[in-house]
From TrEMBL:
<dbReference type="Pfam" id="PF13416">
    <property type="entry name" value="SBP_bac_8"/>
</dbReference>
<keyword id="KW-0732">Signal</keyword>
<dbReference type="GO" id="GO:1901982">
    <property type="term" value="F:maltose binding"/>
</dbReference>
<comment type="similarity">
    <text>Belongs to the bacterial solute-binding protein 1 family.</text>
</comment>
<dbReference type="GO" id="GO:0042956">
    <property type="term" value="P:maltodextrin transmembrane transport"/>
</dbReference>
<protein>
    <recommendedName>
        <fullName>ABC transporter substrate-binding protein</fullName>
    </recommendedName>
</protein>
<feature type="signal peptide">
    <location>
        <begin position="1"/>
        <end position="27"/>
    </location>
</feature>
<dbReference type="GO" id="GO:0015768">
    <property type="term" value="P:maltose transport"/>
</dbReference>
<dbReference type="InterPro" id="IPR006059">
    <property type="entry name" value="SBP"/>
</dbReference>
<keyword id="KW-0813">Transport</keyword>
<dbReference type="GO" id="GO:0055052">
    <property type="term" value="C:ATP-binding cassette (ABC) transporter complex, substrate-binding subunit-containing"/>
</dbReference>
């Protein structure tokens, strides 16, 4: 009870701080669209982001550059902690007070907010200022609902493949050549497992299975939810989970009882030779001084090239008035042309001006991320994907810990998720 109250108190205090930072600008019926000016007399818009990690200052750089590039508009940059972000967004949008003019939202959240009539359709406000041809087409499709645009993509962040170059060399493998398919992956993992605490590939039993499991399913040509039916017990999903389990029980390249982040710890310690995670891990690897490589995820499935990913998108709350549209468009256009700072955070911006530039191509990780843009697949177009995917992730955990057989666990997960979907 104490933990619940302290969390709720934090959110209330956070909202009070954000309200103060917004100079009293509220989006209620009496104040929605109020023309708020900054101290310099320019039109001010408020931007909320969940970038409370090392990526936050990089977005701040873009905002500062925009503010200093002209004197007509000012962006008020406000970071809401990632752990409290959507709770804070929900409270604000439902209360209809102190609503930001612009927000960053993950792609898998957009549909839920659209169906609750909380986001503005951007087709009518992008105009000539925000040119959609300047963005990766797959990223744009991920920000659409029923063919209508509700987000301007900032990036795509798919699953990535990392490996320890020193361990590769010690095992007689070329440190600059990662595996590209399942056969090579298993072969490499066996060579990199030495029987004394060093493993070729430590299988996570929890996060980031939310990215790994769907990746293999999509590579198998499968789907997770389609036409209102949960497909967690389909052959493509069962095979993907059986393969992951075989790395533990058959090939013996992974320990069997990995706890949360155990695979990350072993990778940092030089005891896990290959690892899959998101591009957000770059800073941690570099800070640890690892001699690592990064590449697109190998073809671990059986049918097609695919990888699971999510995205960050700029969205506009439904209540934001037209008088804010020009400032929003100018900032979005500026970010598309001047987003290199976001690439420096380890992410790959979805704007072509950035990811097709020579400067971007010279980076270590970011070009590898962009190589997967066109075949990245996102979460199913359903409300509350997080809640619907929980039964699947619980089944994955139980199977990888040896507590249940794959088909049994996935059939149970399918029934539970179908009840939630209905």
């Amino acid at each position: 009870m104490k933990r619940f109250l302290s969390g709720k108190l934090f959110i209330i205090l956070l909202l009070m701080v954000l309200a103060a930072c917004s100079n009293g600008n509220e989006a209620g019926s009496d104040s929605a669209g109020e023309n708020t000016e900054s101290a310099s007399g320019s039109e001010k818009i408020t931007l909320w982001v969940p970038f409370s990690g090392p990526d936050g200052p990089k977005m701040q750089e873009i905002v500062d550059e925009f503010n200093s590039s002209q004197d007509e508009f000012t962006v008020d940059y406000q970071v809401v902690p990632q752990s409290e972000y959507y709770t804070t967004v929900d409270l604000t949008l439902n209360d209809n007070r102190n609503v930001p003019d612009l927000m960053v939202m993950h792609g898998d959240q957009i549909l839920t907010y659209v169906e609750n009539d909380l986001l503005k359709n951007l087709d009518d406000i992008t105009g000539d200022t925000v040119n959609l041809e300047d963005y990766n087409e797959n990223a744009l499709e991920g920000a659409m609902v029923d063919g209508e645009l509700y987000g301007i993509p900032l990036d795509i962040h798919p699953l990535m493949f990392y490996w320890n170059k020193d361990l590769f060399e010690a095992a007689g493998l070329d440190p600059d050549v990662p595996p590209t398919n399942r056969e090579e992956f298993v072969e490499f993992a066996q060579k990199l497992t030495d029987g004394s605490g060093q493993y070729g590939y430590v299988v996570p039993t929890l996060w980031p299975q939310q990215f790994i499991m769907p990746t293999i399913v999509y590579q198998n040509g499968g789907q997770l939810i389609e036409d209102g039916q949960v497909l967690y017990d389909s052959e493509e999903v069962v095979e993907a989970l059986e393969f992951q389990r075989s790395l533990i029980s058959e090939y013996n390249v992974s320990p069997s009882d990995v706890q949360q982040d155990g695979e990350v710890t072993l990778f940092l310690q030089g005891k896990n030779a290959m690892h899959m995670n998101g591009p957000w891990m770059l800073q941690q690897w570099e800070d640890a001084g690892l001699n690592f490589g990064v590449a697109p995820v190998p073809m671990l499935g059986t049918e097609q090239e695919a990888v699971f990913g999510n995205s960050h998108n700029f969205v506009v709350p439904e209540v934001v008035g037209e008088e804010k549209h020009e400032a929003i468009k100018q900032f979005l256009s500026f970010t598309a042309e001047n987003g290199m700072a976001w690439a420096e955070s380890g992410q790959a911006p979805a704007a072509k001006a950035v990811y097709e530039s020579d400067e971007f191509q010279e980076m270590k990780q970011q070009p590898e991320v962009a190589k997967q843009f066109d075949y990245t697949q996102f979460s199913p177009q359903v409300r509350n994907w997080g809640q619907l995917s929980d039964p699947l992730m619980e089944a994955v955990n139980e199977v990888l810990l040896g507590q249940k057989e794959p088909r049994e666990a996935l059939e149970e997960a399918t029934n539970r998720a179908q009840q939630r979907l209905n």
